[in-house]
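Example 3.2
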Amino acid sequence: MAEDHLERLRALREAALLGGGPERIAQQHARGKETARERLARLLDPDSFQELGSLARHQISDYGLATRRYPGDGVVTGFGAINGRRVAVYAQDFTVLGGSFSEVQAQKITRLMDLATESGIPIIGLNDSGGARIQEGVRSLAAYGEVFLRNVLSSGVVPQISLILGPCAGGAVYSPALTDFVIMARDVGYMFLTGPEVIRAVSGREVTAQQLGGADVHHERSGVAHLVADTEGAALDLVKALLGYLPQNNAEDPPYQPSDDAPERIDPALNTLVPADERISYDMHLVIERIVDRGSFLELQPAYAANAITGFARLGGYAVGIVANNPAVLAGVLDINSSDKIARFVRLCDAYNLPVVTLVDCPGYLPGIEQEYGGVIRHGAKIIYAYAAATVPKLSVIVRKAIGGAYIALSSKQMRSDMNFAWPTAQIAVMGAEGAARVLWREELRRAADPAALEQQFVAEYRERFFNPYHAADLGQIDEVIEPRETRPRLIRALEILRTKVQQNPARKHGLYPS
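Structure, written as tokens:
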């Protein structure tokens, strides 16, 4: 009798390992996709996976589902390790009923998320599903709601990473959107609320799934995807890289990784990297790469709102968040999309105890009717809110321009920045020199015999007085004007001082974030 029980268990386990069966697995491979278990084997440390719920099956007896009950019900859930660190993972299995989302799937996933959040373990979801299981009706809809609730309750408590390795459509898209990071595999992954058929019926436009919601669309246009990889394997590798900068939970510090890049390294090339002529652009990536530990910069959303740069790096082996303007794109201005990008990243760093280093070269907010109508005021306010509310160590370096509202918003003293440095090329002013001269000396210019020549004189005077960092340093708004070449050691020393910083915000239920 005991042997019969063991045989039954072994048979069920074998069935769970096969998912939808050999034929469905072959079809998955023919699409250029791996199975859920193959993906987990690639992602996790060998022999570290402990599965939960492998024998769970749906209880629906009509619509042809009575004979289509598979152990696991289309999702593999459990705990494992990545580079020795515990993680909670779930992987939808497209070989089982197209990975359709069900009540049982939700029970397995939410059980996993509850355990992970209570234990302070990052949550990783591998999405590959045809959508809600239609045969379950409102059960599958309610099931999505249960997952969304956990996404929200876990937000800022444990890191949540979503991979899009196949279809993710309809209501299903909101779970990844509620997580901290979305990683998409090009050509196989796509996300949209309404599919090509609905678009065709409503508007008559022909569009493919990839054109509507592929990785490149969400990487470049919508900003939904934080990282994109060419293959599934590369997407899984990005998860490992990303975790290297993040703590297990909000009560821990990010992991330290020893670096062979000397903390006191001086880089003379920085002294000449920024052009003397302010009208000439340069790529801020070159500045970042010369300051942080070599090879440590991992940029997020690089193709979206590229006038702003956000990403993780290390300084002296310690993980930090980097925010920067990029003068090579739109002169580094702030606009609606870049404001959202920066604000969310600062809040993410604050949630997971990563210091924020801001490199400023910004002429201000982008003017224009479209920006005003689109709500640049409320979007721009998000940056102010994020910096002011953040209690992690905050450092800033004004590389060149810090004009008007951009100076205030981007980690100024008034945003509770801890240490503020400036290069000698810094320009800190209320507005540009030409505009300021026309306002300050309006009457003189109106009466002048040669207003153009006089305006040039006034512009030069304004530049001499305000277009340098020394006036701000006189007033204590800048802690130190430094040589560009010494930026790296200055930042590392500042972070050493601030490593034990403790700051609290006023007690409240929550603030009202600009929408």
